[in-house]
Amino acid sequence: MDATKLLIQQHDEVKQLFKECESLGESDFKRRSDIVEQITQKLKLHTEIEEEILYPAVKSVDTDLVLEAFEEHHMVKILLDEIANTTPSNERYVAKLRVLQEMVESHIQEEEGKLFPEIRESCGMDKINEFGTQLQKRFEELLKGVAKSR
Fold first, then answer.
1. pTM attached to this predicted model
2. Does position 41 have pLDDT exceeding 80, yes or no?
3. What mean pLDDT, rounded, does the chain reach?
4. Which domains does the chain have, with CATH numbers?
């Protein structure tokens, strides 16, 4: 399984959820909250597998970009915590959500436009497929843990 394709698929899922949020009416607090919960879960699982598996494995490909990606993840986690502690009816809730969306979309552009092509060029398909298998396995393990905690 191609690691970059797996991660791009996950990126696309999150971008679609952000689009759904954008289409909601200002007072559709319940639906927005439900979508934000999905975004939060997807982002937490996604960042965890990248940080545990992909980034350490490809750090030598582009150290600066990988270190920056770690920091971008850190900032996303902080904002996710803030959003979780803000009621959807708060006037700043949607603004926080928009900032999160901008941060995530910028991060996605860097990964898909810079890091993933560098990984493809440097690692070869066997290694990329190995990473993909590891990422998918870990994602499924984490997902089971989330399901058990509910």
1. 0.94
2. yes
3. 96
4. 3-149 (1.20.120.520)
